[in-house]
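Is this the right way to post structure tokens for a design question? Let me know if I should format differently. Anyway, here goes:
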């Protein structure tokens, strides 16, 4: 699952590929937004942890990973 996080006052978003299901990610985001001192913690598919302060989160997009396209055909 791909999670994209927009951080306030930062031009680039953070993209994390995680094995968590959408409900787990939504709960983690809700918990991070519940208090100004909380932190969004996500573990990516390689076992690395991403930490984003809850007060800095601008938006979060949760969706399925896009499979890479192979070949030179036009679609």
């Amino acid at each position: 699952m791909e999670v994209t996080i927009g951080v306030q006052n930062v031009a680039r978003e953070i993209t994390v590929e995680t094995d968590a299901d959408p409900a787990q990610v939504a709960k983690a985001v809700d918990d991070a937004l519940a208090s100004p001192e909380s932190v969004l913690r996500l573990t990516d598919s390689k076992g690395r942890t991403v930490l984003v302060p809850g007060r800095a989160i601008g938006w979060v997009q949760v969706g399925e990973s896009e499979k890479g396209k192979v070949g030179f055909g036009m679609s």
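Format looks fine. Someone answered above. Worth noting: The first strand starts at residue 2 and ends at 7. The chain has one domain: 2-62.
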